[in-house]
Amino acid sequence: MVYGNGNACRHQKLAHSKINRIWYIEVNDSRRNIPMTAEFKNELVLDFSQESNRKKQEEALALVQSQLGSEHDLIIGAERVQSTKTFKSINPGKKSEVVGIFQSATPEQALHAIEVAARTFGQWKKAPVQERADVLFRAAEILRARRFENNAWLILESGKTWVEADADTAEAIDFCEFYGLEALRYAGPQPLTPLKGEDNELRYIPLGVGAVIPPWNFPCAILVGMTTAALVAGNTVVLKPSSDTPAIGAFFMRILQEAGMPPGVVNYVTGSGATIGNMIVAHPKIRFVSFTGSKEVGLHIVEEAARPRPGQIWIKRVVAEMGGKDFIIVNEDADLDAALAGAIASAFGFQGQKCSACSRLIIHEKVYSAFVARLAERVKEIKVGPATDPSSYMGPVINESAMKSILQYIEIGRKEGKLVAGGRPAEGDGFYLEPTVIVDVDPSARIAREEIFGPVLAVLKAKDFEDAIRIANDSEYGLTGSVYCRDRTLVRRAKEECHVGNLYINRKCTGALVGVHPFGGFNMSGTDSKAGGRDYLLLFTQAKAISEKL
Ligand code: NAD
Questions:
Q1: Which end of the chain is more exposed for a tag (fewer CB within 10 A), N or C?
Q2: DSSP string, 125-175
Q3: Of 137, 133, 172, nearest to 7 (Cα)?
Q4: Going by C-beta distance under 8 Å and a sequence separation of 6 or more, which residues neighbour residue 376?
Q5: Ligand 1 pocket: which of 87, 213, 398 to mutate (most atoms <8 Å of CB)?
Q6: Coil, strand, or helix at residue 323?
Q7: Which residues form ligand 1's pocket by a CB distance below 6 Å?
Q8: Exposed, middle or buried by CB within 10 Å (0-12, 13-18, 19+), for 497?
Q9: Is the pLDDT of residue 9 over 80?
Q10: Per-residue pLDDT tens over the stretch 139-195
Q11: Of the candidates 212, 272, 270, the residue with the CA atom closest to the CA atom of residue 238
């Protein structure tokens, strides 16, 4: 982040005690020192070809590995709470490795968290916006300073390769800084049409207590973005992380506490989505639900939240970002080298487990055969292995049930098309799968329509550009898509006709950047909230218009 005339970070002294590994931060009245002219800049991802970065990442992995297996409590207000039951989070790349032991919150504990969040809302909503934004700016600074450690948690708990883990951390830093600045912008005067004889103003005020329910696939960035947007707008939060990646959420909770977040603003409640997640969503004191995950769970939450419960005095707001069946179109005139690189990165980066991952490759028939041959050859060269090894391009998929489900889709795909690469589990003591390509798939095939959420790419042949757009749009989803094409008239057409929330031209369909590519999908992909965009904070506020007769 670049500031016009000064930087909050300059007024903060970040220190790290090597002896007890407690981080602390001294803030020299940064509240008055952050100028309103601050300008957002994306955090750059690290270059791991540099020896110094590789060494730091290895050291951080060793440090985090030495902390694995410890028990984590629920965090409700200022209390650390244990439950009667616990569950384990494991390393998907090494099944025998327990990342941490977590509490399965009881319904009473979840209820307590909602009560505490509701009480805290009374004070937090009155905190000056600068104070709330400062928590985010400091969190970004701490995350930046502990970047390699955060990456290590991502590598070990979610199976992200080094590069993918670092991109996740960088995005989380971006969310903190972007939403901090956005909160300051929304707190400023809002333009209204002047009326003689009246003084009019519009203020954005917070909503109340929110249920924040993120997925495991961007276990840092999405969790951080959803949580910080809600809290910086003045809301309090009950955060229920995914049971596959609770340690990454626990690490961010520590960062928020070190950044000066008062107790009770974010309450960390681990446990089953189907039981306590459901209960939190349905509770009458929950004012809004911020969810990112599958279509099935998202639709269920929309239904649950729509039903008013006794004592409820508002219509719950639901922000639900869901699945995708994202496409890349390769036209006959495309730069085929660029298209090949883009398709491989989009389909197999993080094992195809990004909501934006390309799972439908739609190729113009004139270049189809040659492109498919090159694709199969390249995919066979992809190195699958532990995410701890920096030379692995693909790590494991998230868990056993994901692995089984993906393998079942591959079996379906074998009947629906022709398998030209992959198709089997890969070697290793984890959930490893070969990158898989199935060609000659019909648009009506299940593998062309259903979200598989793994390293499986369905390849479809289009008669011409128009046919390619028709196939691309023939989906219940509408999240991301990409078009490789040189002809400017066709590019204009694609921009007009491809019905997705995030459309890319001549680049891959993954890798949205905060502030640059506001992110969110159409149709069954969600409520199009555009995370990382200038409209996002509005979703966590309500506007109060105040008119005074002069
Ligand atoms: P999921 O729907 O299984 O779970 C998401 C979260 O919901 C988890 O925290 C889970 O514990 C919780 N949950 C489950 N059942 C619940 C219930 N009944 N009530 C309340 N909470 C409940 O999704 P996942 O497997 O964690 O994530 C993968 C999915 O997320 C994919 O479909 C992917 O496309 C989607 N996703 C979408 C975006 C986007 O921006 N559109 C981003 C990332 C992931």
A1: C
A2: TTS-HHHHHHHHHHHHHHHHHTHHHHHHHHHHHH---HHHHHHHHHHHHHH
A3: 137
A4: 420, 421, 437, 439
A5: 213
A6: coil
A7: 213-218, 222, 240, 242-243, 273-274, 277-278, 281, 292-294, 297, 300-301, 321-324, 355, 451, 453, 479, 521, 525-526
A8: middle
A9: no
A10: 999 999 999 999 999 999 999 999 999 999 999 999 999 999 999 999 999 999 999
A11: 212
Residue 312, exposed/middle/buried by CB under 10 A (0-12, 13-18, 19+)?
middle
Of all protein residues, whose CA lies closest to atom 35 belonging to ligand 1? 293
Mutation pick for ligand 1 pocket among 175, 242, 522 (CB with most ligand atoms within 8 Å):
242
Count how many residues are written for the chain.
550
Three-state secondary structure call for residue 177: helix
Kindly give the number of the ligand 1 atom that is closest to the alpha carbon of 402.
Answer: 25
Question: Cα(294) to centroid of ligand 1, in Å?
Answer: 4
Amino acid identity of residue 522, one-letter, is F
Q: Catalytic amino acids?
A: 321, 355
pLDDT tens digits along 509-548: 999 999 999 999 999 999 999 999 999 999 999 999 999 9
Nearest residue CA, atom 37 of ligand 1? 322
Residue 303 one-letter amino acid: E
- Name the amino acid, one letter, at 545: A
Report helix angle 221-232 to 246-258, nearest 10.
40
Strand ranges, E, within 214-254:
236-239
Q: What's the pLDDT score for residue 19?
A: 26
pLDDT one-digit tens code per residue, 339-359: 999 999 999 999 999 999 999
Our CA dihedral for 330, 334, 340, 341, rounded to 10 degrees, sits at -120
| Closest ligand 1 atom to Cα of 293 | 30
